[in-house]
Amino acid sequence: MPWPSEIGVLILGKIVVVGIGPGAYEQMTMRAAEALKACDVIVGYTVYVDLVKEHFPGREFLTTPMRKEVDRCRLAFEEAKKGKSVAMICSGDAGVYGMSGLMYEIGREYPEIQVEVIPGVTAAIGGAAVLGAPLIHDFALISLSDLLTPWEKIEKRLLAASEADFVICLYNPSSRKRHDYLQKACDLMMRYKGPETVCGLVWNIGREGEEARLLSLKELRDTQVDMFTTVFIGNSQTMEIDGKMVTPRGYRYE
């Protein structure tokens, strides 16, 4: 069954790239859920497919492991060439460290197939809601994973964002091979941010085991995190209000 590009419009030969949000079905957008209900095939990283499979029975699910992103994209296009309605799913938002860019790049090999992106709730937004309002003003989103970005470039971005007094949200803060990367990042940020800067951690956003914690930048430096943790570092105005992390937007009260 073809899926709707817009309400009431059915289109074949098209792939929808869907951000499924943090993982819980109720945190998926209505548009994302309707697109997945209307498709024949759902393609994705194994972990993400497992998050949605029970909610969309009767669909064909195709998966590839991590680091097989190019194969995953071509798999989706080949299914669409067969006349099937196909969804490529990503956690969070498909355009924030997701698959939408790669889908457009590989899509040049399949000019007969159109690509449409449906946004989702990325970890920065989902985690911010758990913590309070840390991203209410300008902020920078930086991944500490050096699989695709050299550490030297990550280091420059951390320093530049810190010097500019951005609130900083960190994705992929640690792994078995990168166990000290958050510590290194905190040392860099403390060149421009005070050690008492308000920070926040959220584990398993929108999933079972969700947990949040506020702490200082100095404390954050020596805190163990994992790939399921999203890290928030405040700016010079960020404060704690009744256990919540809040960055003022700049309103002035009379």
- Count of DSSP E strands? 15
What is the helical fraction, as a range of percent? 25-40%
* Poorly predicted spans: 1-11
> How big is the Rg?
20 Å
Strand content: 25-35%
CATH domain class name of the largest domain: Alpha Beta
- CATH superfamily (homologous) name of the largest domain: Tetrapyrrole methylase, C-terminal domain
Quaternary structure state of the chains depicted = single chain
The spatial strand order of the largest sheet comes to 5-4-6-3-7
Q: In the CATH hierarchy, what is the architecture of the largest domain at level 2?
A: 2-Layer Sandwich
Give an account of the 3D structure.
- The chain is built from eight helices and 15 strands.
- The protein folds into two domains: 3-121, Tetrapyrrole methylase, N-terminal domain (Cobalt-precorrin-4 Transmethylase, domain 1, 3-Layer(aba) Sandwich); 124-246, Tetrapyrrole methylase, C-terminal domain (Methyltransferase, Cobalt-precorrin-4 Transmethylase, Domain 2, 2-Layer Sandwich).
- It is elongated.
- Helix content is 29%, strand content 27%.
- Strands 5-4-6-3-7 form a five-stranded parallel β-sheet, sandwiched between helices.
- It has helices at residues 30-38, 46-52, 69-81, 100-107, 123-131, 151-163, 181-189, 217-221, and strands at residues 3-6, 9-11, 14-19, 41-45, 60-64, 86-90, 114-118, 132-133, 139-143, 167-171, 198-203, 211-216, 229-233, 239-241, 244-246.
- With 254 residues, the protein is an alpha/beta fold.
